[in-house]
């Protein structure tokens, strides 16, 4: 094929590489203002990108994850038509599976797997450091794109919600209903409470005594500030603690009627699954109840190296059976499993990205430089693709699992 004269030799080799591999969907390379090279079969998904240089392409080819995200972060290419998640979907359709078919690729894959397993062991000290990496970036960022209650987890749009605020309120309402706070005087602990929005919601709507725990200093300080703004009758009976869940459980055995945890289980690491549920059980009184909200994958697989390096160090998204088996091995009983389509989280992420784009230029450039903004765009786009249930998407969804602690309360 004849390429535009504006392309150098390395860029032509890049296009040869993609031409050989892209046969499904539509990938368009914009060479300059007048020339586009169209690859694929013309079907959806479709996206247009600029032509990267040979160095970036070589890195992407040898190590698509993290190479692809790193190239974008550093300005190696741009998406000029469609969204980044569309480009990711095209590439997944054509490159999924990487190089595992050959011996060297399989060797690299096994090394990555071993590294991942070692990194999954999360001490109390490591957990604190990993949480700070993401959640202590700065409240000046999170307040700009989250809803007023600072809910940083999947909103539930599948009941007619039209705005992010409505969908997040729906999520908190349904989560609270599943906790069954059905009598006065119940005590609730919110494990991994974030900025405390769900804790405040439960306190306001049920009157239960609620304690939230987090490892993020920024989240903790925010939660205390919002608590101080509540009326006295809600202010009392609401507490926040800057402490690891394992230490908190050891110091509060059998003191709570309910445990709720939204978006925290993904951070504990696979080797700690049983420990996590043992601590949940330790917090609960006999007959107590827990609602655990987590992202779930279609099958067990290790975390994206790019996500692990830049966004959520030490994180792991479980498959359904991994959640249930870990809880049952910790002597908790499964009462119910509720699943919410991935579209809910994809729509939430799009709302966050739209808001982020609106305020990106207002952020402090010394804290949030161009590379950070491109990283954040790639992170949100990658997650949008992860919840796409179509071919080329990750097929993730959200589960809320209800567990009970065996035994009875005698009064």
UniProtKB/TrEMBL annotation:
<feature type="active site">
    <location>
        <position position="383"/>
    </location>
</feature>
<keyword id="KW-0808">Transferase</keyword>
<protein>
    <submittedName>
        <fullName>Cyclopropane-fatty-acyl-phospholipid synthase</fullName>
    </submittedName>
</protein>
<keyword id="KW-0443">Lipid metabolism</keyword>
<dbReference type="Pfam" id="PF02353">
    <property type="entry name" value="CMAS"/>
</dbReference>
<dbReference type="GO" id="GO:0032259">
    <property type="term" value="P:methylation"/>
</dbReference>
<dbReference type="InterPro" id="IPR003333">
    <property type="entry name" value="CMAS"/>
</dbReference>
<dbReference type="GO" id="GO:0008168">
    <property type="term" value="F:methyltransferase activity"/>
</dbReference>
<keyword id="KW-0489">Methyltransferase</keyword>
<dbReference type="InterPro" id="IPR029063">
    <property type="entry name" value="SAM-dependent_MTases_sf"/>
</dbReference>
<keyword id="KW-0949">S-adenosyl-L-methionine</keyword>
<dbReference type="InterPro" id="IPR050723">
    <property type="entry name" value="CFA/CMAS"/>
</dbReference>
<dbReference type="GO" id="GO:0008610">
    <property type="term" value="P:lipid biosynthetic process"/>
</dbReference>
<comment type="similarity">
    <text>Belongs to the CFA/CMAS family.</text>
</comment>
């Amino acid at each position: 094929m004849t390429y535009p004269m504006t392309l150098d030799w390395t860029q032509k080799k890049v296009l040869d590489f993609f031409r050989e591999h892209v046969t499904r969907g539509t990938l368009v390379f914009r060479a300059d203002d007048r020339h586009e090279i169209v690859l694929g079969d013309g079907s959806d998904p479709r996206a247009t990108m600029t032509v990267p240089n040979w160095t970036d392409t070589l890195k992407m080819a040898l190590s698509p994850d993290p190479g692809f995200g790193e190239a974008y972060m550093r300005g190696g290419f741009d998406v000029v038509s469609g969204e980044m998640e569309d480009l990711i979907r095209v590439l997944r359709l054509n490159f999924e599976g990487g190089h595992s078919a050959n011996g060297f690729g399989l060797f690299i894959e096994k090394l990555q797997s071993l590294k991942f397993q070692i990194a999954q062991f999360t001490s109390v000290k490591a957990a604190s450091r990993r949480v700070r990496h993401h959640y202590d970036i700065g409240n000046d960022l999170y307040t700009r794109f989250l809803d007023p209650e600072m809910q940083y987890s999947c909103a539930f749009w599948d009941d007619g919600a039209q705005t992010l605020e409505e969908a997040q309120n729906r999520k908190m309402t349904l989560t609270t209903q599943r906790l069954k706070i059905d009598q006065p005087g119940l005590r609730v602990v919110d494990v991994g409470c974030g900025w405390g929005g769900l804790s405040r919601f439960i306190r306001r709507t049920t009157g239960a005594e609620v304690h939230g725990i987090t490892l993020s200093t920024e989240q903790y300080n925010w939660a205390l500030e919002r608590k101080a703004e509540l009326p006295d009758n809600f202010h009392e009976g609401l507490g926040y603690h800057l402490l690891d869940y394992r230490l908190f459980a050891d110091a509060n055995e059998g003191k709570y009627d309910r445990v709720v945890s939204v978006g925290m289980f993904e951070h504990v690491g696979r080797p700690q699954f049983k420990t996590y549920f043992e601590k949940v059980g330790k917090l609960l009184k006999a007959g107590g109840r827990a609602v655990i909200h987590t992202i779930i994958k279609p099958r067990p697989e290790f975390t994206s190296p790019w996500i692990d390096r830049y966004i959520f160090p030490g994180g792991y998204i479980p498959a359904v059976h991994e959640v249930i088996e870990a809880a049952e091995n910790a002597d908790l009983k499964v009462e119910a499993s509720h699943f919410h389509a991935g579209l809910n989280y994809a729509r939430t992420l799009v709302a966050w990205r739209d808001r982020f784009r609106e305020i990106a230029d207002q952020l402090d450039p010394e804290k949030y430089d161009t590379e950070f903004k491109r990283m954040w765009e790639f992170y949100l786009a990658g997650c949008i693709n992860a919840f796409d249930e179509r071919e080329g998407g990750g097929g993730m969804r959200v589960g809320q699992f209800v567990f009970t602690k065996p035994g009875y309360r005698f009064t």
